[in-house]
Design goal:
The protein is built from 11 helices and 15 strands. It has 312 residues and is an alpha/beta fold. It has a 6-stranded mixed sheet with strand order 7-8-9-4-10-11, sandwiched between helices. The relative contact order is 0.13.
Length: 312
């Protein structure tokens, strides 16, 4: 399958509120991420792609089927992992997966072989007959991911798959997601607000803010879209307006973003820029608390395109 998901001006309104605003995406056989803060429209977009919500305008194809006119085909061809757990805690892992496979009409022999294979992938084969209610959060998440693959979907959609997990469980879940993509060769669409997750996991991603895609590409490509070479973070006890304006006009500076008493400064050469910044601020009556030099991150990309940090 060349194109796993394609959207055509897809839009969703709730009254006067536009949750998703004319988004156009083309997702191939890859791990594609939707990166943005809570409320950006990521989950609403995912719900339209999984046929739970009907678009107000536009449409999309998922696994070759139209989400409006071929909703049944879409549902047969996708696997979905939602933010909230949908496991039955009173059933074992095997029973949860077996029930899911029956729902999709997977023949018994094929179903049993697939369950064994998938439980082994996420290292839960020894707890296959144990009630899910006794599982940790990370174990439940791993189970939900492979349960969504019992019927061999063409596209797997994961909405915030690591939210609420501790760092160790998050790392394990990300590892399994990557392994599933590599071993089974299916397209994955992952929504996340974790920058490190998007950077590590995704082949390409779209930055979503206020229902719009503000930039898309591979993590490396997105960083290259931000002109300049390094980032200087500076925190001030006093920052006069004259010092800020002088910094913004400095030849060695490509951009300045202010947040309260801190500045994120995009510079051409960090090693040369730091002493220049210190001298310039001092000459205009400013007082630095701290100053640090680092490389570009996806948060800097988000800041560049939206005017604020993803953490904000």
């Amino acid at each position: 399958m060349d194109v796993a998901v394609q959207t055509f001006d897809i839009t969703k309104k709730f009254g006067d509120f536009i949750a998703v605003d004319h988004i156009n995406l083309e997702i191939k056989d890859e791990v594609f991420g939707l990166l943005g803060p809570n409320g950006a429209g990521k989950t609403t977009l995912t719900r339209m792609l999984t046929t739970i919500l009907v678009p107000t305008h536009g449409t999309a194809t998922v696994a070759g089927a139209d989400i409006i006119h071929q909703a049944d085909k879409v549902r047969q061809r996708i696997g979905v992992v939602t933010q909230a757990s949908t496991l039955d805690n009173e059933l074992s892992a095997w029973e949860n997966m077996d029930l899911y496979g029956k729902y999709f009409g997977v023949p018994k022999k094929q179903r049993q072989e697939k369950i064994k294979e998938l439980l082994k992938v996420v290292e839960l084969q020894d707890r296959a007959r144990v009630l899910v209610g006794s599982y940790s959060g990370g174990m439940k998440r791993r189970l939900e991911i492979v349960r969504a693959m019992v019927h061999e979907p063409e596209v797997l959609l994961l909405d915030e798959p690591t939210t609420g997990l501790d760092p160790q469980a998050r790392a394990a879940v990300l590892e399994y997601i990557q392994r599933i993509h590599e071993d089974h060769g299916i397209a994955l669409l992952v929504t996340t607000h974790y920058l490190d997750e998007a950077d590590k996991l995704c082949d390409r991603l779209a930055i979503v803010d206020h229902g719009k895609v503000v930039a898309s590409g591979s993590p490396t490509e997105l960083k290259r879209m931000v002109s300049g070479g390094d980032i200087v973070d500076a925190n001030f006890s006093n920052l006069p307006e004259a010092a800020l304006k002088a910094l913004e006009k400095a030849e060695f500076v490509n951009g300045v973003k202010r947040r309260d008493s801190s500045l994120t400064i995009l510079v051409k050469n960090g090693a040369e820029a730091v002493p220049e910044i210190v001298g310039l601020i001092d000459s205009h009556g400013g007082k630095l608390r701290t100053i640090t030099l680092r490389e570009l991150t996806l948060d800097d990309v988000f800041l560049n395109f939206t005017g604020r940090s993803l953490g904000d």
